[in-house]
């Protein structure tokens, strides 16, 4: 597996992966995803294996030296094989190089697998946001201090 920067030709594939990873109301539309990826403060890394995209992460720099994981998506067949960890490593390394002191993300309150993954990486739940997603599901805001 390799990590590489996003290329515009990746957008249809990334949008398809996002819709396969998240239910309606949580998954982004292609337009939303393109907007996040294209924002001047964002960076996107793509994981490839055998010439096939198997995951990606979009992170952005927020004011006050804070980083935000907008989304991290891994194709189901590639989960628990180090793809998510490699993508998070890339985003956190980028944040450290940018001298960001904090990284945060949101995850659905019922996504226990993701919560465990993030907690194992040092993220902690700091706030629950009711009706965060358009399907009315609540989200946990999880935060990690970067060193």
Describe the protein's architecture and organization.
The chain is an alpha+beta fold and 147 residues long. The protein has a single domain, classed as Gcn5-related N-acetyltransferase (GNAT) (Aminopeptidase, 3-Layer(aba) Sandwich). It has helices at residues 11-21, 30-38, 83-97, 112-120, and strands spanning 2-5, 42-49, 52-62, 66-74, 102-108, 124-129, 139-145. The chain has a 7-stranded mixed sheet with strand order 1-2-3-4-5-7-6, sandwiched between helices. A hairpin with a 2-residue loop joins strand 2 (42-49) and strand 3. The radius of gyration is 14 Å and the shape is globular. The mean pLDDT is 95.
How would you sum up this structure in a few lines?
With 147 residues, the protein is α+β, with helices and mostly antiparallel strands.
Assembly state of the chains shown: single chain
- The CATH topology is given as Aminopeptidase
Instruction: Tell me, briefly, the overall form.
Output: globular
Series of secondary-structure elements, N-terminal to C-terminal:
EHHEEEHEHEE
Structural descriptors:
147 residues, alpha+beta
Helix and strand topology:
Blueprint lengths: L1 E4 L5 H11 L8 H9 L3 E8 L2 E11 L3 E9 L8 H15 L4 E7 L3 H9 L3 E6 L9 E7 L2
Parallel strand pairs: 4-5
Antiparallel strand pairs: 1-2, 2-3, 3-4, 5-7, 6-7
């Amino acid at each position: 597996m390799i990590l590489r920067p996003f290329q515009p030709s990746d957008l249809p594939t990334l949008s398809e992966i996002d819709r396969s990873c998240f239910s309606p109301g949580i998954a982004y539309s292609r337009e939303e995803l393109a907007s996040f990826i294209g924002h001047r403060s964002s960076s996107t890394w793509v994981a490839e294996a055998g010439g096939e995209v198997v995951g990606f992460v979009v992170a952005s720099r927020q004011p006050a030296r804070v980083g935000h994981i907008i989304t991290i998506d891994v194709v189901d067949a590639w989960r628990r094989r180090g793809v998510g960890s490699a993508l998070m490593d890339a985003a956190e390394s980028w944040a450290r190089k940018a001298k960001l002191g904090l990284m945060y993300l949101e995850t659905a309150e019922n996504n226990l697998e993701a919560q465990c993954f993030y907690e194992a990486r040092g993220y902690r739940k700091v706030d629950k946001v009711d009706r965060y997603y358009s399907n009315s599901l609540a989200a946990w805001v999880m935060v990690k201090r970067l060193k």
